[in-house]
Amino acid sequence: MTALLEVEDLRVAYGKIEAVKGISFTVEEGQIVTLIGTNGAGKTTTLRTLSGLIKPKGGQIKFQGKSLKKVPAHSIVSLGLAHSPEGRHIFPRMSIEDNLLLGAFLRSDKEGIQKDVQRAYDLFPILGERRKQAAGTLSGGEQQMLAMGRALMSQPKLLMLDEPSMGLSPLMMQKIMATVAELKASGTTILLVEQNAQAALSLADQGHVMEIGKIVLTGPGRELLVNEDVRKAYLGED
Amino acid sequence: MHELPQQLVNGLLLGSMYGLVAIGYTMVYGIVQLINFAHGEIFMTGGFGALTVWLMLPGGTTMWIALPLMLIGAVIVATLIAVGAERFAYRPLRSAPRLAPLITAIGLSIVLQQVVWAWFPDAKSSVKFPELPGGPFHIGSITIQTGDVFLLIAAPISMAFLGFFVKKTRTGRGMQATAQDPDTAKLMGINTDRIITIAFALGAAFAAIGAVAYGLKYGEVNYRMGFILGLKAFTAAVLGGIGNIYGAMIGGLVLGLAETLTTAYIADVPGMQQLGGQSWGNTWAFVLLILVLLFRPQGLMGERVADRA
């Protein structure tokens, strides 16, 4: 079986500064794959490159066997790759419902869209209660739910989540991570970027540790979780 | 002292013309944060587009047939120029420092003025614009000049259409999303380049309608008509809160009212006798702009910046 997403020797630069220095990894269907690492490791840059917002300097990205190199950013979501960006980036002056509908911007099956809006409300009941409210008035955790719900509205084959737990209270973080697990159980393939290594690794089938633009360690999530180097560097143990 | 209801109507009519042109400034600014200073000249080319159609029609064509064709001509000319300007002048500069596209816009407006001046027959002075048939009509004590009838009908229809377009259509929602967060809009599958083109085109189309209204109202067009009117419309956009399309409409109306009322009544204020009359209208319009910038810089309906976080 070929992987859903294949990244090979991906290199990305901002001007002369290389932020991603030749990384390779794959995501198989049904898996959760996580990229962990500190700030500036290149995780967000990697995701933004995968969804076409940044053009890579070199390497290959293949999604379902098809190269994404020449595909413009606005066409990537139609291939089945949805991206919930770092910092949530919901549309603050639009209602929650309009935000969700924008996630389905390229779909025209009205009934299917309504069904998926309902599914987002089932997944996050608080969104349903406030559907007419401007999204900018939501709390950080609620905005994160909205960003995830919005990304799901495109019926993605691969969902990319960038730092879904960033800036959230421990309780809200648990809730978000439980949702990630729930999504996986329902068959969604997820590429998860996290600074919260503990939470990410315990969910992930496969984990990659990034350091200044490179993948320095790879393994099944549970193995990395007990790896001594990882524990020292990312889980705050010595 | 003139009659107040009449002055209010005059002000609203003038203001709705400003509003039509202001929409172009505010839409483009809302999406690409560019003050398109060539927009006044795009408005002007719309006027000459309409005039060209009129000159091509056989003599004696009734305005009932001519006016729709002139409108189409105006909209086509203005839209093509605006879309061309976006594609070839502004798009290459999209990631350049802000000053570069701003200077380009000023340059473009000079080019457009000079092209019309040099190439359009008799454009070196004011060119007569066709008139609507029929005399002025009256509602109670209020008189509507024949030239204003078009504005009275076209402005509300245009604004209703725009409101519907932005709120209810898919492209309109894509436009709102692009204005709020262009990168994330791309992640939703919105072709933001296309949205930007549409914003320029729509703004130009409304300006062209405004230009036809201008021609009918004043009975003439000239190659410099975009300068002062463009500045006024820009003022209206800032007054209403730049980036907010409803603000552009409201700003236009407020500006039109302020200009008309000060022109009519300021001379009645003791000590201000010499500041009344038509020639001071522009001054009062810009005084209003300065006051708004001083006391409410985000404009009457401006967005709070805080919710961008």
From TrEMBL, chain A:
Pfam families registered for this protein in UniProt: ABC_tran
Molecular function terms from GO: ATP binding; ATP hydrolysis activity; branched-chain amino acid transmembrane transporter activity
Stretches assigned to coiled coil: none
SUPFAM superfamilies (alphabetical): P-loop containing nucleoside triphosphate hydrolases
A GO biological process held by the record: L-amino acid transport
Keywords: Amino-acid transport, ATP-binding, Nucleotide-binding, Transport
Ranges of residues in domain ABC transporter: 5-237
PANTHER family assigned to the protein according to its UniProt record, in alphabetical order: BRANCHED-CHAIN AMINO ACID TRANSPORT SYSTEM,ATP-BINDING PROTEIN (PTHR43820:SF3), HIGH-AFFINITY BRANCHED-CHAIN AMINO ACID TRANSPORT ATP-BINDING PROTEIN LIVF (PTHR43820)
Family, similarity comment: Belongs to the ABC transporter superfamily.
Protein name per its UniProtKB record: Amino acid ABC transporter ATPase
Organism: Streptomyces katrae
Automatic annotation (TrEMBL), chain B:
Pfam families per record: BPD_transp_2
GO MF annotation terms: L-isoleucine transmembrane transporter activity; L-leucine transmembrane transporter activity; L-phenylalanine transmembrane transporter activity; L-valine transmembrane transporter activity
Alphabetic keyword roster: Amino-acid transport, Cell inner membrane, Cell membrane, Membrane, Transmembrane, Transmembrane helix, Transport
Biological processes, Gene Ontology terms: D-alanine transmembrane transport; L-alanine transport; L-isoleucine import across plasma membrane
Identification of the protein by name: ABC transporter permease
A GO term from the CC aspect: plasma membrane
UniProt-annotated location(s): Cell membrane
Family to which the UniProt record says this protein belongs: Belongs to the binding-protein-dependent transport system permease family. LivHM subfamily.
Residue intervals passing through the bilayer: 12-32, 39-57, 63-85, 97-120, 149-166, 195-215, 246-267, 279-295
Membrane topology recorded in Swiss-Prot or TrEMBL: Multi-pass membrane protein
Main subcellular localisation: membrane
Signal peptide coordinates: none
Superkingdom per UniProt: Bacteria
